[in-house]
Amino acid sequence: MSEWTLYAQRRWAGKRVQRLEDRGMLTGATRYVTDVQLPRMLELAFVRSHAPNARIAAIDLDAARRTPGVHAVLAHADLADVHPTQDFVELEGALKTPRITLPADRVRYVGEPVAAVIAEDRYAAEDGADAVILELEPLDDDEPIHDGIPGGRYFHQAAAHGDVDAAFARAPHVIGRRLNIQRVVTSPLETCGIVADFDPASGELTCHLSTQMPHLARAALAESLGIPVSHVRVICPAMGGAFGGKEVMLPEYLCAAAAAIRLRRPVRWVEDRSEALTAGAHGKEAEAEIEAAFDADGRLHAMRARFESDTGAYSSGIGAYVEFMVAAFTVPGLYDLDAYAYDTGGVVTHKAPLSPFRGVGMTTSQTLREVVLDDAARALGIDRMELRRRNMVADGPWRTVLGEDYEPGSWRTAFERALELIGYEVFLERRASQRKKVARPPRLLGLGVSPFVEAAGLGSAGGAGGLPGTSHDNATVSIDLSGRITVAVPTFSHGQGHHTTVAQFVADMFAVTPEEVRVLDGDTARTPFGMGTFGSRSGVFIAGTVSRAGVIVRDKLLRVAEILLEAAREDLELVDGAVGVRGVPARRIPLAALAGAAHFAPHVRAELGDPTLTSTAFFDPPRPTHSNGTVAAIVEVDPDTGGVAIERIVAVEDCGTMVNPMIVEGQIRGGVAQGVGLALLERYVYDETGQPQTTTLAEYLLPRSTDLPPIEIDHLETPSENGTAGIKGMAEGPASATPAAIVCAVFDAIAPHGASIEDLPLRPETIAAALAAR
Amino acid sequence: MTRIAIEVNGATHELDVPPRLLLADLLRDRLALTGTKIGCAMGACGACTVLVDGAPVRSCLMFAVQAGGRSVRTVEGLADDGGELRPLQQALHEHHGLQCGYCTPGMLMSLSPLFESGEPLEPETVREAIAGNLCRCTGYETIVDAVVEASRR
Amino acid sequence: MKPSAYEYLAPETCEEAVRAIAEHGDEAAVLAGGQSLIPMMNLRIAAPRVLIDIMRIEELDVIRDDGGSIEIGAGVRMTRAEREIPEPLLGKALRHVGHAAIRNCGTVCGSVAHADPAAEVPAVVLALDGEVVLRSARGERILPADEFFQSYFTTAREPDEIVVAVRIPVAAPRVAFLEVTPRLGGSTGEFATVAVAAAAELDAAGRFARVSLAFAGVAERAVRAREAEALLIGAEPTAEILEAAARSAAGAVDPPADVHAGAEYRRHLVGVLTRRALTELTA
User: Shortest CB distance from C262 goes to which of A645, A698, A765?
Assistant: First the structure.
């Protein structure tokens, strides 16, 4: 076989192609789980605990069962044969807390589901839920939240790389910083939901589910419900955002499925916003502390970091580990350390269980590290950017103090570019001049910069920030008898436009147009096994699997062409959806005819041997990709009210070769917006008795259009050496780097006035109090 | 049950509805117009926004019985019958003003009267017009750019 | 989040409405714009057995301007009020209420009757020394705003009364409305942490002839900073006087703490907003 490159043409990949997904969304035709209507479908509403820590003294379902419109009410006893949710995390020493679908005798957080009411519609189901009599007897605070987990600490790990103690002992300057990272809620616009449908004739369970990991959800449903995997199908209609909150198998899903099986009617549960805020996908909460050891020239030699996650009531599932583990492993960032030690772990508490949330622990480590660098610069009297320059690694491949190998990237270039775009020098002059003119400026100005690196596309070899894991992804490329290409991918788009980027990629492999490529995702009956979409992995895994499967199928097509054209491979070219002989325009065969021949021409089939035009390919990357960039922000702080306005945000991004720059920019802007929320607005609050205080969107503040400035973007491109076609994973970098830029900017504005803050988010009240306290 | 006559996307419906049925649920469940979404049930997120007598309104904060005798327009009623996208929809498409699409119907309905006014629009005006519509994906900017640019065509 | 069942009544005259509420008393709730009531019903915090929808009553959907004061009927929606009412302070405040879609449905009188201590409209009505018109089977009552607002979501309205109108004098020529929220860049809309509605008239010598400062979000109801006002009457708006007024206003409140803000911060904001409002009034 002569050499054929990945792309037959370069017409679509790299271009700002408008999305194929859009029409349905713009016309209201796109269907999400909440829009799925099945005949005879019933609706489910949960009865949830109103106490954070209590014994279930009694639960009386009679009145509920007799409520008009109610078909069934289920509690623990009814679901005794549903196994606890699967916990895929295998970390030595991790103490597990199995998650039973509906608890038997104890509740551990406000909002924990205790009973399920299934009725004609949601109105009747809630009437039924109101009629359930739930008697809870509060337990003492010192009652262990789970047996066998003393102090609630279910995991702890400490390690040192290099001689940390010696580095600290000889450092003339040690700067320390603590931050209390607040609890947040992932809050996609579309909440969680499931429609479960059981066919008693075939024994097949079909779940329409809003999930980031269709095949893993299928396995988890099968395992817990005791149904063979072969008899479970997960269909994901369009998903309205996820950001990590739709990875885990929720007890609510199992409950709905069990109800559908029992009642032999489809059952739908749609999480309402109250449920999402109170008992849904919480994220981030942790105590974070760091010490950094500097010499007199501002050279950073070593760091020590400590993290403790407040995990909520259960430690089962990935959400219980990704915060503190990823945080510990990402502290060094782009800085050249001689030594680094971490101490990291989590405790279970009487709050909703943590979920992964975009950026996971990277957000915390990034904020903590960049803040302490600014602190150090102020303490040592060195310019903050100069301090970073003295310690940032040069562009190019690099091995970190943790032994992680970064592939080449534009670490320094992105940093300098961001400084140039935000106008760092101009800003310093402007502020100096403002201070000269007015003793008490009406607004305090601050600037923050956050250079980041993001490892993505982690396969089995890489794990994820210290978390071992195995990865299995496939894609299937098929050409049907009409010559149309169908690609089934192992990922699932929650809004990232995968259908478009895959179509662009495949269109260039086969010299067709994106509209001619059909992309399938999210349905376990129509896609091969894959791990789904999370951790910025999709670009890498789609490119890796699709390219491999696509090349095999394309090779078959070319063989058909060789037979029909009686030509040698090296004389063939694939142009405009047809294979022809180079230099002989008359001799061209369109894909449709090639496919037709492979299906129906006996002599072609005989020569081919295997005429199938379909291939499923597996890809497990041996090395991750590393994208990078820098977010910079200028803020104005009102010293009287503590109010913050963001004057400008700049985001420089290098995610290697971009398939669709427009989509990449969308991910950057969305990530930056979420970062603003984390830095300044969002917090989920429990009072001292464990009662949630921020239970509606009036208290839990998501960023609005009027909170955000335009986000200026610049791209660099260092093609990936580890990813296919130069593609690097992206989308969590800017999200996890933005809080650091904003927090550093605010601290830059208020630190000269002696104000210091440990608690995030930086609300106006927090800032005003810090300024008043100096 | 209360009998109401309601016009939705130009078609009149006579329906018997329980008083507590929200307009959003009438549209979604009784009329199968699932484009309108319920995001928070308290008016904060804007995903349920429809036009009632030409004005953007939260359909999660209106009972169907209150809409009797009124004229309602949903996102399904925007594109013409030929399926051509209206300029506002086309503008969002061209500027990547949507990602997961869940907030999009509410955005379109909140923007529709302003855009239909035909005035060239400033970015601040557009930001203000969608200040009641939450988007968790886009950061709003491409939506604003789309509307500003399209208003100037 | 679906509401409980209720009986729906849609009277077409005020008399019918008054009869209905006389019959059902505190088992009934009045439904006007619904932008405060329906969220509570969706959350099942409120579950009235009867709703009396007053939005079909034509006689309530009126704005009457008799030159000295404006009467806003209970059927008047906020967007219409923003557009049509010449009284500038109300218009300034309404821009901050929720978002446009909320104002398209919500009514001015609805906000008055709901009496959220953090709401903008009650503060404006109080600042302007407005009056609330109540009607029942027993007749009509007119209460000064300061008597009408009592405590958290609590007013002097009897269970068998309906708020049918609010009357506001046309404001003194100088008005200011300022609001602090947790959001960025001074964005308007949504909920206030603390807000001030202010009106003033200066005499020929530039001294305060009349001034009123009403605050939302600092007590169990909207309140006037009467001591600060008294301090200002007859005084010139010097920096020292404004500072004294700010300190007086801040010292006079004992704000509650809740998830949105603590007491100290609210008190601090009273001082800040007093200073800023008075500066704007006297610019």
Answer: A765
C252 and C269: one domain?
yes
Residue in chain A lying closest to B34 (CA)? A35
In a domain, C178, yes or no: yes
Q: What is the pTM of this model?
A: 0.97
Q: What is the mean pLDDT of each run of 10 residues along chain B (153 residues)?
A: 97 98 98 98 97 98 98 93 88 98 98 94 96 98 98 94
Query: What's the half-sphere exposure (Cβ side, CA atoms, 13 Å) at C25?
Result: 0
* B18 inside 8 A of chain C by CB: yes
- The yes-or-no verdict on residue A2 having pLDDT over 60 is no
User: Is C149 among the domain residues?
Assistant: yes
ipTM greater than 0.95? yes
C45, pLDDT greater than 80? yes
Domain co-membership, C117 together with C190:
no
The pLDDT of residue A229 is above 50:
yes
Q: Given an 8 Å threshold on Cβ–Cβ distance, is C10 in contact with B43?
A: no
Instruction: Based on the fold, state whether residues C116 and C161 are members of the same structural domain.
Output: yes
pLDDT digits (tens, 9 = 90+) for A498-507: 999 999 999 9
Residues 463-502 of chain A whose Cβ lies under 8 A from any Cβ of chain B: 494-497
What is the least distance, in Å, from the CA of B90 to any CA of chain A?
9
Between residues B74 and A80, the one the model is more confident about: B74
Shortest Cα–Cα distance, B45 to chain C (Å):
10
pLDDT, residue A1, reads 36
Number of domains within chain C: 3
- Domain extents in chain A: 22-30+472-618
Contacts of A421 (CB under 8 A, 6+ apart): A632, A650, A652, A712, A714
Q: Identify the band that residue C234 occupies on the pLDDT scale cut at 50, 70 and 90.
A: very high
H/E element, A217: helix A214-225
Q: Is pLDDT of A74 > 70?
A: yes
CB contact under 8 A, B102 and A189: yes
Give the DSSP per-residue string, A688-744. TTS-BS--STTTS----GGG---EEEEEE----SSSGGGB---SSHHHHHHHHHHHH
Enter the DSSP assignment of B102.
S
Q: Look at residue A468 in the predicted model and tell me its pLDDT.
A: 64
- C-alpha–C-alpha distance, residues A225 and A175, integer Å: 53
- Say if the Cβ atoms of C3 and B42 lie within 8 Å: no
C chain contacts of residue A273, beta-carbon cutoff 8 Å: 1
Smallest Cα distance from A488 to chain C, Å: 37
CATH of the domain at C152: 3.30.465.10
Candidate from B19, B129, B132 with C-beta closest to C6: B19
- Look at residue A230 and tell me whether its pLDDT is greater than 50: yes
For domain A22-30+472-618, which architecture applies?
2-Layer Sandwich (3.30)
CATH number at residue C207: 3.30.390.50
Contacts of B45 (CB under 8 A, 6+ apart): A189, A273, A697, B39, B103, B106, B133, B134
Residue that has been written with the tokens 């990272």 in this structure: A181
Backbone angles phi, psi at A248, to 5 degrees: -90, 150
Domain of residue C121, residue span: 60-169
Contacts of A30 in chain B (CB under 8 A): 101
Q: How many residues does chain A have?
A: 774
C187 CB within 8 Å of a chain A CB: yes
How far away is chain B from the Cα of A735, in angstroms, using its nearest Cα? 11
All structural domains of chain B: 2-77 (3.10.20.30), 87-151 (1.10.150.120)
Same domain for C41 and C81, yes or no, is no
Which residue in chain A is spatially nearest to B87 when comparing CA positions? Answer: A26
**A113-136 tens-digit pLDDT:** 999 999 999 999 999 999 999 999
Query: The domain spanning residue C42 has which CATH number?
Result: 3.30.43.10
- Tell me the C-alpha distance between A500 and C19, whole Å: 62
Judge whether C1 lies within some domain: no
- Contact (CB, 8 A) for A631 and A737: yes
Which residue in C has a C-alpha nearest to residue B25's C-alpha?
Answer: C2
Residue C221 covered by a domain = yes
